[in-house]
Amino acid sequence: MTRLLGIDLGERRIGLAVGDTRSLTSRALATIRRDSAERGVETLARIIREQRIDALVVGLPLLPGGSEGAQADATRAWVNEVAARLGLPFTYRDERGTSVAAEADLGPLARGRSGGVPSMAARRQRRSRIDREAARRIVQAEMDAGVLVRP
Predict the structure, then answer these.
(1) Angstrom distance (rounded) from CA 72 to CA 68
(2) Residue 82 domain-assigned?
(3) How far is Cα 128 from Cα 134, in angstroms, rounded to an integer?
């Protein structure tokens, strides 16, 4: 197994990143819109083919104490409905703090052109970058742990 797809699942968007287990490196890939399960399977299947992905690493949103709540349940339901249909092995990785760290790395959002509030488009673009970077952190954490998903 050499290529992993990191997934940061949100309510509206899905951040994606690719990890290479040979070089132990990862890179942010894309942010896609979270649509119906059928469209999600189609989009992810295309990305999986293009990127030659061998397994999935899905971020699991645990509560601060480490237990699972409603968001973790929703993530597991999505995996059962979408990721399992992709025919690849998958694993979960604790995603606590990944979005916060990604946002901190990006720094503050720049002011708008006239010095005012940033535009809606600028805010959406930043949110997409945060989602991709969170996915990169998820897949990198899986590789750093040395316990890679097995078929």
Answers:
(1) 6
(2) yes
(3) 10
**Model pLDDT, residue 104:** 74
Asked whether residue 150 is assigned to any structural domain, the reply reads no
* Six-digit token string for 34: 């979270």
**Residue 124, domain member (yes or no):** yes
The SS3 call for residue 13 is: strand
- The answer to whether residue 123 is domain-embedded is yes
Look up the CATH number of the domain holding residue 107.
3.30.420.140
Entry pTM: 0.87
| C-beta separation of 8 from 26 below 8 A | no
Could you tell me the residue range of the domain that residue 128 belongs to? 3-145
Q: Flag residues of the chain having pLDDT under 70.
A: 1, 103, 109-115, 147-151
* Confidence (pLDDT) at 151: 44
Other C-beta atoms lying within 10 Å of the C-beta of residue 150: 8
One DSSP character per residue, 100-147 reads: HHHHHHH-SPPPPTTSSSPPHHHHHHHHHHHHHHHHHHHHHHHHHHT-
Half-sphere exposure of 138 (CA within 13 A, CB side): 34
